Amino acid sequence: MDLQKLVQKTRGLVIPLVILIVWWLATRNDAHPSPILPTPEKVYASLLSLLNEGKIAANLQQSLAKVVKGFLVGIVAGFILGTLMGLSRTVEKLFGPLFNAVRQVPILGWIPLLILWFGQTELAKVIFIALGALYPMTLNTFDGCRQLKREYLEVAQVFEYGRLRLLWRFTLPSALPAILAGIRVSMSEAWLLVIGAEIFFKARGGIGDMMWEAKERVRMDVVFITILIIGLIGYLLNHAMTLLESRLLRWRV
Amino acid sequence: MKKQFATSASTLFLGFIIPTLIIISMEIVARFGLTTNQLFVPPKLIFETFSDLLKSGDLPRNLAISTLRVTTGFIIGAFAGLVFGAAMGISRTFEDYAGPLFHGLRQIPVLAWIPLLMLWIGIGEDFKIWFIAVTVFYPMALNTSEGVKGIPMSILEVGHVFEFNRLKQFWTIILPAALPSIFTGLRLSLSIAWMAVVGAELVAASEGIGYMMYTGRQQFQLDTVMVCIIAIALAGYGMSLVMEWIEAFCLRWRRTVE
Hints:
The complex is a heterodimer. Chain A is built from ten helices and no strands. By secondary structure, chain A is mostly helical. The longest helix of chain A has 38 residues, at 163-200. The two termini of chain A are 29 Å apart. Chain B is mainly alpha-helical. Chain B is built from ten helices and no strands. The relative contact order of chain B is 0.12. At the A-B interface, α1, α4, α5, α8 and α9 of A face α1, α4, α5, α8 and α9 of B.
């Protein structure tokens, strides 16, 4: 069993290693290094120097600040909207179609409008990220609230629970898995959109802007590094959310 | 996930209340000159711009260009994702080799590929098509491989009993059984493709609906931007409806489609 696992793990390394070797061989003997394919050594050296200068940390901090703001606004708004639509059929009928219509607009399509309304400001970016986080959060919360089992409703009726108490005791706990899944999806959406915000809003600062600037100066090594870091942070954020999920859902059998 | 909210006649009526109220109040604000803010657009102006742009042919032309890009990129990406995902689902060995790299690359938010692709491919038509194809590839591959892996053993055994060869097993058993999740992937990919084309056209294009928005914004034509937003939403919705029809047609043998 362990040997099989080991074989599996090694197999996964084969293709990345082959790519690395081909890359190294292809760029090894260049008298005139190609601007769009730096050597692996160059990428590694740039990574070290960027880390040393603290450029990566500083830009990441700016991006994460935007993500947190947009994410929080988005999930709170999505939670409220989703709960209201989930609890009341009337609210659902009033806002559901509008919500679905607005959702048809590809999220990046809002950028020109947001720029016109709010300018190239921090506020515009946060609203943009919040909007992206709002959709999955609303849908998941809505679905979760609707999953309340009939038996629980009957129990609540027997004990003559008020609406708030029913919400707090039964609806929200039974919706929790869906809500947490919504939070996780919203987080990865927020991370995607902060990169978008930094590329499409001509903004200074942030890891997306660092990547864009490197593109403008044809610094392929920095582009590679920023892509890797963006992927890594995205993975870590997702992982953190998954941990949070399993921790908060421990009470479930 | 397909029908998020109930849709019936009464629902439809209630659903129109708030949009109508918004439009009426916007129109009132405009009529009585309650605001001099040029960032405020009366609904009437949006409607006029819409018909102007329709008549001049600007809107249909740019929308057609974007739709063509979406379609091309979508077909390439979806096909590649389908083949790759099916291979990962069918062959354990293939998954061992390619899976970790795939899941690693999947962590990278799709928009982060834009600068790299622009440097490697340039800012021409190829860039847009490739970018759309890349964004479509991941959800397609993931859904296909999960669909294939989720096929119950008992169904696969039928193929062994009848001694189908590999190709026949794939066409008559694996593909139909994985079709529902393949369509989930297709629907998801299609909406991502629309997002991708707007993104690509916002950064590098001289035509297309995203470019039209971009110039509209630069010239402070809020009405044009609004019209583009509505047009993209309608086009995207139209295409997803077509996809749902295809899905219903292909899955008509299932007694219940969700």
